[in-house]
Amino acid sequence: MPTPSKLNKDPHNHYFDLGAARQVPETHAWEGLHEHPVVDGGVGAGEDAVPVVDMQDPHAAEAVARASEQWGAFLLQGHGVPRELLARVEAGIAGMFALPKTDKMRAARQGGDPYGYGLPHIALYFSKTMWSEGYSLSPTNLRPELRKIWPDAGHDYSQFCGVMEEFHKEMGALADKLMELFLVALGLTGPQIAGVEAEHKLTETMSETIHLNWYPKCPDPKRALGMKAHTDSGFFALLMQSQVPGLHLFRHGPPADRWVEMPAVPGALIVNIGDLFQILTNGRFRSVYHRAVVNRDRERISLAYFLGPAANAKVGPLKEVVGGGRPAYRALTWPEYIIVRKEAFANGGADLEFTKGGTALEMVSINPDDDDGMDDQGDISS
Ligand SMILES: C=C1C[C@]23C[C@H]1CC[C@H]2[C@@]12CCC[C@@](C)(C(=O)O1)[C@H]2[C@@H]3C(=O)O
Ligand SMILES: O=C(O)CCC(=O)C(=O)O
Ligand SMILES: [Fe+2]
């Protein structure tokens, strides 16, 4: 049996009830949270205003290109997912996380499992614990997974499953449209896009993962952290958040390195670019380093709908993007990349060197001065 102190250090322990906490214990107190200023990213914030893309706008592709090159993230409007559905999804998630800990624990993630209830996967790499609960799900296995939480398969279960299935259908269709928009934004012609699709089946084989986040109110939000800063590893994520800000995007200076606070815009979704998309686009579209902070007065919910390649697909820079240049990254699968990231966290002493992200990407980049990895190209690459 682990001792209680050992339990407190285990990132996957659920001994400590965040919802009832009256103070932030040492186990949940992070260093370095205030190294960089936090600035508002709302419309009217000038340079720091988070880019907005309206999918109905005929010039949407240009806006996507600019935002993906300069920010790695944008607010998405005109996406067609009904606001009323987003509200039902949020209410369902709130109801699920409000269940007794013992119910949620039946779905606890085991060891290295990608799916399940508990802290997010990256929690493994840090000695401190995040002020949140998470639940990663495969939308293709929704009903059996949620039966762990609701074994009686009663009304709440049916309702939540129904809402999540409706949501998955809408988001899957949106993700396909967005992938096409990204390819247009890269400057690919119609025939090139058809060629990429025929060769790599990017859209057809794209996988979806849903990750739910719950950030309870926190008695001392300046010392705690909802989600440790990271880049998402896949292609891109569609994020939905409650009307409580908390997502911070990292921006390099000049004028200064800073965190830009994502505004809560009713009905809008957020798009974040992940590391494998940076690889696929040969570094043209950048993944965004981001974190989530917590709040004293209001709990917050977010949902990330992750799109990524099939597990066995090697992802390397698209030859249509590399053109006459050189590939900047070697090709690898998503699971291989996750292993590289694990090494990056281990080498970097986790909490310190990762303040700006990018370490794992550097580890798979091809140095122009050596030929290593040049013939390492695979499925989704040149
Ligand atoms: C499909 C994915 C994407 C994962 C891993 C797996 C399931 C859970 C996702 C997250 C969700 C929370 C942040 C993150 C960084 C984490 O720790 O778990 C994500 C990670 C990634 O983007 O790498
Ligand atoms: O809660 C948020 O806004 C961010 C969540 C996040 O980054 C993630 O789930 O990957
Ligand atoms: Fe994320």
Report the order of strands and helices: HEEHEHHEEHHHHEEEEEEHEEHHH
Largest sheet: 8 strands, mixed
Question: What class do helices, strands and sheet pairing give?
Answer: alpha+beta
| Small-molecule binders | Gibberellin A9, 2-oxoglutaric acid, fe (ii) ion
Q: Could you explain how this protein is built, in words?
A:
It comes from Triticum turgidum subsp. durum (Durum wheat). This is gibberellin 3beta-dioxygenase. It holds the Pfam family DIOX_N. Belongs to the iron/ascorbate-dependent oxidoreductase family. Its cofactor is L-ascorbate; Fe cation. Helix 2 (about 60-70) crosses helix 6 (about 155-185). About 30% of the residues lie in helices and about 15% in strands. It has twelve helices and 13 strands. The strands form two sheets. Strands 2-3-11-8-13-6-5-4 form an eight-stranded mixed β-sheet. The chain has a five-stranded mixed β-sheet with strand order 1-10-9-12-7, with no helix packed on it. It is globular. Helix 2 (about 60-70) links the parallel strand 2 (about 50-55) and strand 3 (about 75). The chain has about 375 residues and is of the alpha+beta class. Gibberellin A9 binds near residues 120, 136, 304 and 306. Gibberellin A9 (J5X) binds near residues 120, 121, 304 and 306.
Strand-helix topology:
Elements: H1 4-9, E1 38-40, E2 52-54, H2 60-70, E3 73-77, H3 83-97, H4 101-105, E4 116-118, E5 133-137, H5 142-147, H6 155-185, H7 190-200, H8 202-205, E6 207-215, E7 227-230, E8 236-241, E9 247-251, E10 258-261, E11 269-273, H9 275-280, E12 290-292, E13 300-308, H10 319-322, H11 334-347, H12 359-363
Parallel strand pairs: 1-10, 2-3
Antiparallel strand pairs: 3-11, 4-5, 5-6, 6-13, 7-12, 8-11, 8-13, 9-10, 9-12
Helix pairs in contact: 2-6, 3-6
The structure holds Gibberellin A9, 2-oxoglutaric acid and fe (ii) ion (FE2).
2-oxoglutaric acid (AKG) binds next to β6, β8, β12 and β13.
